[in-house]
Each structure stands twice: as C-alpha cells, then as structure tokens.
Amino acid sequence: MTLLNKDMTLCISLSARPSNNGTRFHNHLYEALGLNWIYKAFAPTDLSQAIAGVRGLGIRGCAISMPYKEDVIALVDRMDPSASAIDSVNTIVNDDGVLTAHNTDYSAIAQLIERDRLDPAASVLLRGSGGMAKATAAAFRDAGFTRVTIVARNERNGRMLADLYGFSWVAEVGDATADILVNVTPIGMAGGAEEHTLAFSEDAIAAASVVFDVVALPAETPLIAAARSAGTPVITGAEVATLQALEQFVLYTGIRPSAEQVREAEEFMRAGNA
C-alpha cells in the first residue's frame, strides 16, 4: 500500500452511519491503478463545516450519503443535471474550490432495472421519500413504470415525491402487495434502530416477483434474507453501491477501470463485511 505523503489526493464520504464499503472499494482501485490517492469515510458533526473543509482543504471528491443528500444542495456551487433533475446529491467534485454536485445513484438504479429486465407493466411498492428514494423513483419512472405506490410515513414528503412522478402515495404498507418491492429507507441497515426489522411483510415478500433493497450494509439485510428464503429473486444494495461508487471513481479520477478491476474491488469491498 502507498505510504501517506503530502502529495496524496484525498477523497472522502459523509454519512450519518459510515461503512467501510466505499473506503475499501476506492482504495483498492487506487492501489491497482497506481494512483497516489486515498479515501476516508467520515460522520460529520456539522455538515456545512464539513463541506467548507472539502473546499478549503482541496479535497478532490466527496460522496454524500443519507441523510445529507438534499441538505447539501445549498452548500455547493453548481448542480450537474444528474443532481438538479431530482434535487438529490450523492457526489461532489471539487475543481480548484468550485464544488459541483452530481448524482450517481440514479444511473446505478437504472442500470439494475435494465440488467434484470424488470417489466414496466409490473406494480411497485417503493418505501421511502428521501434523496435516495427520489433517485430510485425517477429511475423507475424513466424506465416506463406507472403503477408505482410510494410508501412513506412522512405525508408531506411522500405526497410530494408521488406527485413529482405521477405515482400514488400511502402512509403505511399494511397488507398491500406488489410485483416489485423496493426498500429505500434505513430499515434493515446495520447499526440502526430497525436493523432487524423487515421493510415489508413476509406475505408481501412471498407474493412478489422481485425484492429490491437499496440498503448496502449489510449486503444480506433482513429483507434480502427473507426474500431468498421465500425463493423470490433479489437485487441488493451492495450491487447499487458498486455501480454508484464506480461512477464516482470515474468522476473523481477521470479513469474508468476495467471490468476485472471493478470485480476485484467489489470482492475486496464485500470481504470487509464478512
């Protein structure tokens, strides 16, 4: 591993509950490509001061995770169309003190919808109403899905998101079922208050044709584990994390690694959660 030195380029991530996923993924690629770069995750105590540090310290890139994807908008200089289209940010690129916000969550979700050939005629229950939910809802809308119900306890945010994309809204899942179940909340996330909770009922999971959990840590969330037990095909948050992190890497470095390098970085990332 490259020793720390004054000429290193630094990239960071900001999250309420940081994981080692991005740290392992990015640093593995830096090493594989011989780059004098380093990546570190942080849990900021003050978001505005953290972003000021990105600008003032010349930090090249900054990944933004829940719950900061919308709050950070007021702190950047420019919004790339990928972020402005959905008012949600997951990536900041620093060009000599000018901070440009991007969103690679959307492209990751869109790629997985296409890869798994999800049927646009299918019904969808999408649980969540934050920045990541915006990116996910936009990807489903743009893929041709119309039978989407947003499930959100926060009525204001839930209705706003549903109205934005022409979907319906309900406050609770209840006994509702759908062809595709999508969790875009912290339910099932390691270290959270609901880390052992199912985002959807076991009956809904068994009735679904696909279960999609955006939570990346752990890769085997309670929802994913229940879906596998029921024989329901899954799309995991770890897959989302890999795709969005890859696009962040390209934005920061201007280099697109080979498929083999990405596969090895993904394996290294997941080994850290074993």
Automatic annotation (TrEMBL):
Cited Gene3D superfamilies: Leucine Dehydrogenase, chain A, domain 1, NAD(P)-binding Rossmann-like Domain
Entry's Gene Ontology BP terms: chorismate biosynthetic process; shikimate metabolic process
Coiled coil residues, start to end: none
Annotated protein name in UniProt: Shikimate 5-dehydrogenase
UniProt xrefs under NCBIfam families: PRK12550.1
Shikimate dehydrogenase substrate binding N-terminal domain sequence ranges: 24-92
Molecular-function annotations in GO: NADP binding; shikimate 3-dehydrogenase (NADP+) activity
Pfam families: Shikimate_dh_N
Annotated Gene Ontology cellular component terms: cytosol
Organism from which the protein derives: Microbacterium maritypicum (Microbacterium liquefaciens)
